[in-house]
Structure prediction request, 350 residues.
Amino acid sequence: MLKLIISLFLLSFTFLSYGSGLEISVSGDMVYNQGVNETSQAQDKLTLRGAEVILYAPIDHQFNGVLSIAAHEENGQSNFELHELYLGSSKLIPRTNFKLGQFFLGIGRINRFHQHDWPFTRAPKVHRSFFAKEGIFDSGLEVNYILPSLSGSNLTMGLTSGHKYGHSHTEGAKPKTPTHYARYSHFLEFDSLTGLDIGTSYLGRQDALSNKMSLLGLDLTFKHRVGRHLDKLFQFETWYKNETNSLDELTEQVGFYFFNEYSLSYHYSFGYRLDGFKDLTKRNAITGKKINNVNYGTLAQLTYQSSEFAKMRVSLAHEFDREEGATLGRDTRFQLQYVFFLGSHPAHVF
Prediction:
């Protein structure tokens, strides 16, 4: 795989020398985790969490293409995997953009972004539980349509293979119902520097063992800029998950987070996040009665961004689980993150 990446680099520079328009983006994401209490699951070491190479360019006058290869450290080893490989176009059908290939599913908020572009280091519990540590990507077709009658409204719909769900290195099994999803969003522009994006999402699938899953979500993102500088950010997501196994046993879970970050100066910003997660159907193994349970999380962070190509973040995060009024586990950790970009970087949506 290393030879493949080197070959891609050489090929990329060859194309660039002929003015093909090919762009290269390389990102590095390093995280140090230090447990503060004895029950913390932090590994107390520096992890090279992600190294990603993205190649993107117009294919011709109608299509564009994206290739993303990432390396992650798992069990002390770096594993390479294909994140995204798709072609797309916004020129074939009016008001319509589509992707065909493998990509991160366009639902919610942070699932639509690569991990190094998140506004915080570690995902909240609801995201880790419903979407895995980094996010859900799959192969298929995704279509985004700008609604003509409502200014600022978009409808995203997707259908993917569903052979696997979450972070997996196996080919999975053919599902009985493939993964299908949709997101409706509406953007409110208060002025040229301030806006609010509101989205509602749905995802459903049924795997090869007849386990059915449905997700419903709501996300809000508010941004205010001073020039090109992000002055205020508010981000919120809440998700509800419904699962039924082959024995018709029902599991329901719900969770949320809200994150607020504001600028201290041109280079520094401070943010905090509150998380909540609850299993609505958890029962006592002996009595069979529902158990009152909840997971809480809080996070405070300070981010230094020297430019759009480099940032360093320190954070202190605390999570704890409670059942029937008793605290079962605590995880308090200190985190230091450094993210950098080489070359160009694809433009993001709001």
